[in-house]
Task: structure prediction
Amino acid sequence: MSSVNTSIRLFIVAVIAALVGAACAPDSASNASTGAGGEELSGSIAVSGSSTVEPVSVAVAEKFNAENPGVEISVDGPGTSDGFELFCNGETDISDASRAIKQEEIDACAANGIEVIELKVAIDGLSVITSTENDFAECLSFADLWALLGPEAEGFKTWSDANQLGEKYGAAGAPYPDQPLVVTAPGEESGTFGSFVEIVFEPFVEEEGLTKYEEEVAPRPDYQASANDNVIVEGVSGTSSSLGWVGYAFFKANEDKLKALEIDGGEGCVAPNPETIASFDYPISRPLFIYVNKQKLEENPATEAYVDFYLSDEGLASAEEVGYIPLDESATEETRGVWESLEVGTREGG
Result:
């Protein structure tokens, strides 16, 4: 056989191989929007709950929709408690939460035949904030927070109104100046409200032996409450001697008009930043969650695909992109393990 014929045959073989390879190669653009059976994902996913976690779930939804345009995802943030009410009524697929689920919420879900899968997705440092114009407050202890924001502070209109109470409990920041005390903070439907009570007030009540508040404690009722973090940001930034609290991402997004105070949880003043929050050295650090209705996974393949994406490297990166602290490797693997096994129940709440 001549060398010319051999060359022609080799050329034909190469062309055929290239064509076969192109036909068999996966189309990443189309496969990204297809389910396990090769069909394009469609349907809708309802996510509701924490306004703190809402920006993370929105960011994940936008990335997911870029690959799965046939899936309609709604995300809103009425508050963790309100979100769990919707979730346990079967009205949503996923519940965002800035605190762990409570036993009564688990019971409400169970009464409607709903099994919950708890997935930790990020870490937050609950930030006690004031205006950047505030030049007198730098660090507050838990005793300060009780004197200014606790139930015994009801009716206080100035910081100095809390002087006697602060002195009583040995508050490090007392005496306080004679400046208006304008408080704007989350309402009771918010997980950020619940976390503040759980992390700051409940230990303080126990340590001080305040038996009157052992069964139930809440912040002073006479402040401007909102489930909308942006409303809180505007309220706090609008008064130079203001006080309030939000999730770390909302502080970071508004550093030009908010000042985050250092907090002394008993071991000295610590500022919220990625390092102190990740290590939990910042005393008001907390995990953030999403909760998945297990039954919805069987009814709606898009929900499973969305959570798969949420827990991918690209999905989890969304938490840091919007201002929260990413899980470390161990916590990430733990969360993924819970999801892979579809483990129901709670490790953190109840």
User: Anything to note?
Assistant: The chain is about 40% helix and 20% strand. The CA atoms of residues 114 and 227 lie 26 Å apart. The first helix runs from residue 3 to 24. The chain has two domains: 39-122+287-341, 127-283.
